[in-house]
Specification:
The chain has 370 residues and is α+β, with helices and mostly antiparallel strands. The protein is built from ten helices and 19 strands. The structure holds adenosine-5'-diphosphate and magnesium ion.
Length: 370
């Protein structure tokens, strides 16, 4: 049993926020994140819904709003805390998953992919994977096979970001394997030997994402991107051949403002299709799982049947194992520091707070005598 680990990360003020002379409303100290509603007068306490400041505790609160601050958390540090955990899990034979959740422009892609020369979790995890493979291979203890795939879920349709133009890339089907669980039929998997190989694929996939974005209305804020590493280790255990297979899902979710109609402005509401089914269902799944864990903690498990609606969306169906199942899972909630985003930021902090309650059941995926 393992709880979902939750981190919150605050980015610097952007141009627009500075131009609007937005106020900084986020403070972090240790594991705590505090948000202030500057519209309320100072000194009001008691009624928690109206408290001027609200404090949340997470596994990590990452202050990345000012690189000159002594508490500044860099990409390197995020990798050291969270990425090395993912690598450790993979080498032990567990599945792992990292989600980035937050409103558009809050730093999801920066945290997951990063910028040139300032790479994020995905490139660092891949680099770390190959450097560890080299270490173990040198000792001659095991052999490895690494495959990657990269897909996008847009309007509940799965699109392969790595498939060559000539073949089918749109509208792939999600099916379920009796033993291995849900998977995407016909999704291309690419065997990679070193970090260079992965980098090329990542770049190609990212270009596919952004090319589409220029033709359609901000696809990247509406779509979920899932980068998956399939990692197989073969070794001898007491003279017997033994294989472990780990799946690592690295997920850049659609902008969280798409989860909630009440947060949408008039214009956005009229756009049509602005509610993201996968994101709404993710919220429902997280809530159901949080309820389940609470019941279990209170020894009520048998009294109440909680239904977890995995099948209601493509995202939750595909990532079923990562949510309350066989996986070590991390959620990174990214937020803006500015008062003008108070509503969205508070809802992200609450969402992340709910996710803390999910208990997963990771097991080593071992196949003896293969
Ligand atoms: P999202 O993917 O959530 O829509 P992005 O990751 O694209 O948001 O971030 C929006 C902008 O803010 C980008 O230009 C990105 O480089 C910058 N940014 C985000 N987080 C940080 C951070 N922690 N430090 C520095 N710049 C950041
Ligand atoms: Mg993005």
């Amino acid at each position: 049993m393992a709880s979902v680990k939750v981190a919150v990360r605050v980015r610097p003020m952007n141009r627009r926020e500075k131009d609007l002379e937005a106020k900084f409303i986020i403070e972090m100290e240790g594991k705590k994140t505090t948000i202030t509603n500057i519209k309320l007068p100072d000194g009001i306490t008691g009624d928690s819904s109206r408290d001027r400041t609200k404090v949340f505790t997470y596994d990590f609160s990452y202050f990345s709003a000012d690189c000159k601050n002594s508490n500044y958390v860099s990409q390197e540090r995020v990798f050291r805390d969270l990425g090395t955990d993912v690598l450790k899990s993979a080498f032990e034979g567990y599945n792992a998953c990292v989600f980035a959740y937050g409103q558009t422009g809050s730093g999801k892609s920066y945290t997951m992919m990063g910028n040139t020369g300032d790479s994020g979790l995905i490139p660092r995890i891949c680099e770390g994977l190959f450097s560890k493979i080299a270490d173990v291979t040198r000792k001659g203890d095991a052999s490895f096979r690494t495959e990657v795939s990269y897909l996008e879920i847009y309007n509940e349709r799965v699109r392969d970001l790595l498939r060559r133009k000539s073949s089918k890339t749109f509208n792939l089907r999600v099916r379920e394997h009796p033993k291995e669980g849900p998977y995407v039929e016909d999704l291309s998997k690419h065997l990679v030997q070193n970090y260079r190989d992965v980098e090329e694929l990542m770049d190609a996939g990212n270009i596919n994402r952004t090319t589409a974005a220029t033709g359609m209305n901000d696809v990247s804020s509406r779509s979920h991107a899932i980068f998956t590493i399939n990692f197989t280790q073969a070794k001898f255990d007491a003279e017997m051949p033994c294989e472990t297979v780990s799946k690592i899902h690295l997920v850049d979710l659609a902008g969280s403002e798409r989860a909630d109609a009440t947060g949408a402005t008039g214009v956005r509401l009229k756009e049509g299709g602005n509610i993201n089914k996968s994101l709404v269902t993710l919220g429902n799944v997280i809530s159901a799982l949080a309820d389940l864990s609470q019941d279990a903690a209170n020894h009520l498990a048998k009294k109440k049947q909680v239904f977890v609606p995995y099948r209601d969306s493509v995202l939750t169906w595909l990532l079923k194992d990562s949510l309350g199942g066989n996986s070590k899972t991390i959620m990174i909630a990214t937020i803006s520091p500015a008062d003008i985003n108070y509503g969205e930021t508070l809802s992200t902090l609450r969402y992340a707070n709910r996710a803390k309650n999910i208990i997963n059941k990771p097991t080593i995926n071992e196949d003896a005598n293969v």
